[in-house]
Amino acid sequence: MTAERNRQVLLASRPQGEPTPDDFRLVESGVPEPGPGQMLLRTVYLSLDPYMRGRMNAGPSYAPPVEVGAVMEGGTVCEVVASNLPDYGRGDLVLANAGWQEFALSDGDGVRAIDPAHGPISYALGVLGMPGFTAYTGLLNIGRPKPGETLVVAAASGAVGSVVGQIAKIKGCRVVGIAGGERKCRHVEEELGFDVCLDHRRPDLPGRLEAACPGGIDIYFENVGGAVFEAVLPLLNRFARVPVCGLIAHYNAAELPEGPNRVPLAMQAILVKRLTFRGFIVWDFADQFDAFRSEMGGWLREGRVKSREDITEGLEDAPRELIGLLKGENFGKKIIRVGPDPTQHR
Ligand code: NDP
Fold first, then answer.
1. In angstroms, rounded to a whole number, what is the distance separating the alpha carbons of residues 273 and 268?
2. 161 Cβ inside 6 Å of ligand 1
3. Does position 314 have pLDDT exceeding 50, yes or no?
4. How far is ligand 1, taken at its centre, from the CA of residue 246, in Å?
5. pLDDT in tens, 266-300
6. Ligand 1 atom showing the smallest separation from residue 245 Cα
7. Whose CA is nearest to atom 3 of ligand 1?
């Protein structure tokens, strides 16, 4: 073991509703030595993503939960510290799933090399990584945008929504974003180039959305559920497409909301308007990743897609930042800088 210590954030307990800092525990241990067929990774950037809330729950989902007492899972950009693998050497930069810790061992499975020439290495966790790929595949395969159509997307300043809207603009759509607060809405309109962005925290979202979509909605990229979905549903046009990507408004819910059962209304709309709802998980389209990376790389170089990152220093703040992300306190792709970025010292 080296003299350095490895700080890790563990899942301490399963949250009931909104997570609290007590659901996490920061611990220290020794830095492990890589054995044969292993390498030692140092975490530079840790991605925080809404799916992590789901992994804190017990029970079946599309991926197994994090066990209580285990290191929280997460995508990372790492530097190779020492390697007994032929394909990786000291100083290489890689995309890995090292989780919420400063050092991790890897056998190379699921690891991808990162080329710093393609932009900031943190982009591998955002616009050039999982969230950007989610936006690309969900929109192009399920939303199937056509010029002149109207697309609506919420969490519009976030990692996925910001990319959905910008690609839809490239495809010739009219794009209506929904975001929390005036600052985010201004950014979405002025920096990202959406046609309009509505603040869902202000009163009468249904009325304002109807006014912003005079020809109805052809594609609703579903990121949030809740009140936004209720405002969208009556405005969907015949044959509208709804890629169901995420339902963040419900992730902290411990029980179903009160009120009348509105499932029949939703089903009636799906039938009468011949709507297509399709849920997807990003890796359903894994074979499109190389095409995505090359096309998105081009759009970034041409300035047709922009990315805003929200970077916080220090692993110890990850629990507070994840709790905040679920409430809209992030402004852009949420990333924790866990250790020094070697590309910023070259
Ligand atoms: P973001 O960077 O957009 O951060 C989450 C945002 O959600 C918050 O900033 C907040 O934005 C918004 N939000 C939170 N609660 C509500 C609410 N009640 N109503 C409306 N908006 C709310 O996250 P991502 O871009 O990483 O993820 C967006 C969605 O995509 C999530 O639902 C996520 O689970 C999903 N996803 C799905 C994947 C898949 O494979 N299917 C892969 C990746 C992400 P604001 O302040 O603007 O309201």
1. 8
2. yes
3. yes
4. 7
5. 999 999 999 999 999 999 999 999 999 999 999 99
6. 41
7. 158
Lowest mean pLDDT among 1-15, 203-217, 268-282: 1-15
Ligand 1 atom closest to the CA of 332, numbered from 1: 2
Structure tokens at 179: 């975001």
Going from N- to C-terminal start, the domains of the chain cover 5-126+307-345, 130-284
pTM here is 0.96
| Cα distance between residue 3 and residue 168, in whole Å | 51
Superfamily of domain 5-126+307-345: Medium-chain alcohol dehydrogenases, catalytic domain (3.90.180.10)
Q: Whose CA is nearest to atom 20 of ligand 1?
A: 224
Mutate to test the pocket of ligand 1, among 182, 224, 250, 336 (most ligand atoms within 8 A of CB): 224
* 130-284 placed in CATH 3.40.50.720: yes
User: Hey, do 5-126+307-345 and 130-284 end up sharing a CATH topology, with the first three levels equal?
Assistant: no
Q: Return d(Cα 151, Cα 240) in angstroms, integer.
A: 10
Long-range pairs of 107-111 with CB within 8 A, sequence gap ≥ 24: 107/37, 107/38, 107/39, 108/37, 108/39
Kindly report, residue by residue over 137-184, the tens digit of the pLDDT.
999 999 999 999 999 999 999 999 999 999 999 999 999 999 999 999
